[in-house]
């Protein structure tokens, strides 16, 4: 980590630990099963993972009172700690017991650095860890999914499910008046389980950033949630407007269903493999093996209808591979017998990454005051608890900027031409199966053409009082998730192949140059900007590339490893989320995304999970 940033982050962590230790209050939620002896011999559905997607599907399926449903979660319930509940402390759960504490495999393209990849290990999953941004991508992003041969997966198909998950509250008149926030009520849901509302307080330097990008011609759509998500706009958070606290998957989808007598949840158990049997029509899944630890005994839970994998883009392919479902050539190296030949399992791995560009500005009030001024921090905390406003009521990320290439570089057409000249499989892993190569070829063409499109964002700029977080939204690089061993308690080898394709680097280099233009606008120069990272002396393309390789890090959006799509093109699930070549098995989490949308993916995972629940329920009529 860059020294200046590491110092700031360390101070923030100490601040979080102090607050949560002093102010944490116990959580009250419906209790899960306390012992394996309480498990039924057989369930209709077994859901692996109690995160965003798993709890969404469990809630919807359990609306049917005749179904026995079990959710298996490796983590536990949170204890309502301040670093989870209070918006201004969002992100504080990273690195705690609620995080799997995984790292990505080292990669020479990022100087062999070891990068942490936070993933939720708790009831609520990563919705306890994230920064509470509740936005959506542009319609073009989701229409790409449909263009890849997935009917029913375009923007208009998904919008009803975005709305179904959401309980939207419009911003207060005072916030609208002060910040000129616009929104379109027609694209938001009002009867969903996830609270969606705007911060009641916003850091004042945001106004100067908005004026700066306006002077550079950035557009301001009415509401990014409408599918018009290119430009600069205010976004809601998954935040309860009454309590001004986090609305996570546990509070949204578990607390509203736990009293259904046939819905069971068992925590502290890892799904170690799927049990299957051969039939005349091919293998079918008949159960799930679970265990508390590598040393503990294993127990098998039997299933009548389906097993639903909702363990996330890293653990879902791990479980499939441990169960003999994947590429036989890869599984044979670990002496795992092949149950179903599905070569796409674990492939097509992608994740948003970012680089920071850090300036100092002479702003009178910034978020650093919370860690440098104990009096200000105490007054702010009191304001939060008594009035529900002030710095601790703000999770940051209130105003987002997603820009097409034409906004930040004059090289959009040359970047497209260079991309099209590439062999689409040039930068894929050497052992990538043929079908996956063919599937990525179609993605590669869409990604190339997106570089000159006006309705597809290539970068995100997230403003934080002088730190510009520059996210790469449509990486061309693709990696994989593979087993490190046949031990289910050993973390898998997760390798997103950051920056393997040089186009990804060139986009970020151009974006850094654009950030410097923003800092030079008349809206920001009165505050005496001084570039700290990477530093004004780092100005050649070669030097900027070296900086990007040494600074790039994850935005926590892993996806794609069990992609929806045609089997012949590397797809793992069909349009109804069913895994190819094996019966009674579906995948419903972010691993089914064929391509990342330009957005923070939380609300997209909820929407896709709602779509999955609808697909499962529609099968009851067949």
UniProtKB/TrEMBL annotation:
Pfam families: GMC_oxred_C (PF05199), GMC_oxred_N (PF00732). The keyword Cell membrane does not apply. Residues 120-143, 312-326 form the Glucose-methanol-choline oxidoreductase N-terminal domain. Keywords: FAD, Flavoprotein, Signal. Its cofactor is FAD. It comes from the Eukaryota. GO terms for molecular function: flavin adenine dinucleotide binding; oxidoreductase activity, acting on CH-OH group of donors. The active site is at residues 557, 600. Residues 1-24 form the signal peptide. The keyword Ion transport does not apply. InterPro entries: FAD/NAD-bd_sf (IPR036188), GMC_OxRdtase (IPR012132), GMC_OxRdtase_N (IPR000172), GMC_OxRtase_C (IPR007867). FAD binds at residues 130-133. One of its GO terms (biological process) is secondary metabolite biosynthetic process. Belongs to the GMC oxidoreductase family. This is Glucose-methanol-choline oxidoreductase N-terminal domain-containing protein. The lineage of its organism: Eukaryota, Fungi, Dikarya, Ascomycota, Pezizomycotina.
